[in-house]
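PROTEIN DESIGN WORKSHEET
SECTION A - STRUCTURE
LENGTH: 423
TOKENS:
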């Protein structure tokens, strides 16, 4: 998260980790309609309602957070709200929680700094407690499990949601059972693999759950689709625990490592930010958190989304967040698995909302392609490309579109003649 040095894998002994209690999750049953399988979002749309001071459990809300922000003035919060940020994930200790509350913002606070603060404990703006960032990397499995259990025991027992973020331990170094015990400990988990900017990922390496475990080339490392594969990994580990809880994902917005350009450090490009966000969502992420700090490069910053040198990134973050907010009811609607299939050059997600199908598609390759998307039991119609002021005709249940590079994302609303009864 903060540019920690790469650690050696720690081979742990077996330690019992008791997961935090969570209410029984009653999901609406998934359903099949012909060849289309409707699948609920992880945890269900009302997942957060089981907690005290909960995040909104309404279709119109999708968590869009920023990491370790400082909110001490109205101008601070105005800038964040203008970027369509609706959640603070960890705040500086001089932040004004009353101001956060008055502005209708929510906060997940680090228990290490705020857990004994009566202002935080009594604040309606505080919707959850962050446990210990990247403990999987710092401690490994054995010590990490013990430490996490101890930290949870010291966290206010007030019914609020417990959240934690994980890094390369869960992603790369630990076995699946070891990693799953971390991911299934808290109520909401996230991960932070910065594929576009991490200098330690720039060289060829193999990842057991990616590319059939074959070594990745530099081009395969630096691609937006990997942010979606990271979510796949987290969701698979989550499901090993028997519960489908929400998984969120981190996206960097600046230069998050201390290495200089000569040492392999770099900043993320605006188009890469947008593509990484949408690939995370296409893979099933139920929340996005922006890593807001730049530790090297020409413009070091603790608040990149507020600082003028990062205006281009802020502009695309703002437009991306606005579209996420606009489409939140669609994103919280069921997946419609089996409705759309596509060529291997893109990844798709289909949603079914208000009797309409929506297809989200992102390029998987760092090259141009013109894939065809095929629709199940569908005749002719129109694919309206949301946010692009264009439409594509659908004939015989198929349509094609151009994806100019690895950062290309298109979102389609499908209208036309379906040949089977609608769900």
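SECTION B - SEQUENCE
RESIDUE ASSIGNMENT:
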């Amino acid at each position: 998260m903060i540019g920690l040095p790469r650690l050696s894998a720690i081979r742990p002994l077996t330690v019992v980790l008791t997961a935090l209690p969570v209410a029984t999750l009653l999901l609406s049953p998934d359903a099949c309609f012909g060849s289309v399988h409707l699948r609920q979002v992880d945890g269900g749309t009302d997942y957060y309602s089981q907690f005290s001071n909960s995040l909104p459990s309404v279709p119109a809300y999708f968590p869009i957070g920023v990491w370790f922000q400082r909110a001490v003035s109205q101008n601070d919060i105005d800038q964040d709200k203008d970027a369509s940020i609706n959640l603070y994930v960890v705040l500086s200790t001089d932040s004004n929680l009353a101001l956060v509350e008055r502005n209708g913002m929510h906060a997940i606070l680090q228990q290490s700094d705020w857990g004994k603060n009566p202002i935080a404990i009594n604040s309606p703006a505080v919707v959850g407690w962050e446990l210990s960032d990247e403990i999987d990397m710092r401690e490994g499995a054995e010590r990490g499990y013990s430490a996490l259990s101890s930290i949870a025991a010291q966290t206010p027992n007030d019914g609020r949601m417990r959240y934690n973020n994980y890094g390369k331990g869960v992603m790369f170094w630990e076995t699946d059972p070891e990693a799953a015990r971390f991911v299934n400990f808290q109520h909401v988990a996230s991960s932070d693999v910065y594929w576009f900017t991490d200098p330690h990922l720039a060289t060829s390496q193999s990842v057991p759950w990616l590319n059939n475990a074959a070594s990745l080339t530099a081009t395969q490392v630096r691609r937006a689709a990997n942010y979606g594969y990271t979510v796949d990994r987290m969701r698979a580990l989550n499901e090993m625990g028997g519960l489908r809880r929400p998984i969120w994902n981190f996206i960097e917005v600046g230069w998050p490592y201390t290495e200089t350009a000569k040492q392999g450090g770099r900043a993320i490009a605006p188009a890469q930010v947008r593509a990484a966000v949408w690939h995370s969502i296409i893979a099933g992420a139920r929340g996005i958190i922006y890593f807001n700090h730049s530790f090297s490069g020409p413009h070091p910053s603790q608040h990149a989304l507020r600082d003028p040198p990062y205006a281009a990134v802020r502009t695309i973050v703002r437009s991306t967040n606005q579209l996420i907010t606009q489409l939140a009811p669609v994103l919280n609607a069921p997946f419609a698995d089996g409705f759309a299939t596509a060529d291997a050059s893109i990844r798709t997600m289909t949603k079914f909302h208000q009797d309409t199908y929506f297809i989200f598609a992102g390029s998987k390759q760092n090259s141009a392609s013109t894939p065809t998307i095929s629709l199940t039991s569908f005749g002719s119609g129109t694919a309206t490309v949301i946010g692009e002021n264009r439409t594509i005709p659908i004939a015989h249940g198929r349509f094609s579109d151009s994806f100019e590079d690895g950062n290309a994302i298109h979102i389609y609303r499908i209208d036309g003649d379906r040949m089977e009864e609608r769900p």
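SECTION C - NOTES
The mean pLDDT is 91.
Residues 64 and 85 are 5 Å apart (CA to CA).
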